[in-house]
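Narrative of accomplishments. A recurring question from our advisory board has been how the design workflow behaves on a single, concrete structure rather than in aggregate. To address it, we present the structure tokens for one chain from the evaluation set, followed by the sequence designed for it. No filtering or post-editing was applied between the two.
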């Protein structure tokens, strides 16, 4: 994959069925990353550790049906909840609960528009 798409996806990463890469260019997925079903990952996304190699707990865990847009970075032992959205260019170093949106540098987490707060 490195030659054709410049992607570096570790064979040790756990990627469920149904994960889609609409523009699979320059994506980096580290050793201990776990990605749930139905997640979509756009170009230039990095899912990795803070640099403590060999420590599985230092990698992100991505829930199901998550959207991770272009050039986002999710780093360290963070959990991204089901149905969350990670905006383009976001740098995420803290947990993002289910159904929330993270954007910016460092990432700000907010409720999705149109989601009932009483739910």
């Amino acid at each position: 994959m490195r030659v054709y798409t410049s992607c570096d996806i570790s064979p040790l990463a756990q990627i469920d069925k149904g994960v889609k890469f609409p523009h699979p260019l320059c994506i980096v997925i580290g050793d201990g990353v776990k990605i749930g079903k139905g997640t979509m990952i756009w170009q230039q996304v990095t899912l990795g550790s803070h640099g403590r190699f060999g420590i599985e707990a230092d990698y992100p865990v991505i829930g199901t049906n998550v959207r991770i847009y272009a050039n986002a970075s999710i780093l360290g032992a963070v959990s991204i909840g089901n149905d969350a959205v990670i905006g383009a260019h976001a740098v995420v170093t803290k947990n993002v609960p289910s159904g929330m949106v993270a954007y910016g540098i460092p990432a700000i987490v907010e409720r999705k528009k149109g989601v009932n707060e009483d739910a």
